[in-house]
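B., you asked whether I could sanity-check this one before it goes into the benchmark set. Here's the sequence:
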Amino acid sequence: MDRLMAQTKIKLQLPKDRRKKWFHLLIRDRYLYLLALPGLLFFFLFKYVPIWGLIIAFQNYSPYAGVLDSEWVGLEHFNRFFSHSDFFLLLRNTMAISLMNLLLFFPAPIIISIMLNEVRHTVFKRFVQTVIYFPHFLSWVIIAGISFVMLGQAEGVINEILVQLGFEKIPFLTSPNLFWFMLTMQNIWKDAGWGTVIFLAAISGIDPTLYEAAKMDGASRLKQIWHVTLPGMKNVIMILLILKLGDVMDVGFEQVFLMGSAAVSNVADVFDTYVYRNGILNGEFSYTAAVGLFKSAVGLIMVLTANKLAKLAGQDGLY
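And here's what the prediction gave me:
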């Protein structure tokens, strides 16, 4: 009986002891938590607080009535969206651009980081890193302006060079067949260099003795990359791939909006531009909230599915 009472007493004390331990850790690491506070506030205010506004996707929202007093319509907006004649066009364009980014853009930082890791001249390596990082800090307005100057059919630099070489001009900006590829190349030029930061950090964490052992076994530089560098980057690649799949429905509004035109509208209209046109310009807030909720749901399903498949394959996932 005494033993049972003692065990019960210990169990009652555990939550209190845990609270003391948590409070002690909070006091001990207060400066670290203070350092993280701006980031936590950002995500709380701009990522979590707006979630409650998703309820307008199930309403006929009126700014005058407010969120709580607007008329509830259930899944009416979703039914309208899925039955709309443009739904499959928007889905095709969005998925096509995302797939091209996944196949061409995602491997680019990996390849560049491996190439940079093989450079032995430190000054040249730092110079190249600086040059390829720079486009990341340019806005899409500037990128679009550069693209118009370089790729324009009338006075574009590249077309002028083609004419001088005896070739015909290519309508880079107005050809529907080239639009998706052009967007992907813009993404690679702008952000591939910046994406190498994470992969170079992953490479720096690889044990140097593994390379020494590979050399002792007679492995060439290419085989060292294949059998040491890539396996050392595997976990980081998998995690970033899962996160990339979560953004499969987000192809970048600014880029598509700035580069789109009437000539390529059939391949340039994506969910983001559709939401802008109907939500901001036409004031259909509830309808476009339903579209946004659909995009978020697809992204969540993609992340959960990819993470599960990674776990089943014996790889590290997000959680």
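One thing to flag: The CA atoms of residues 75 and 255 lie 31 Å apart. Otherwise nothing jumped out at me.
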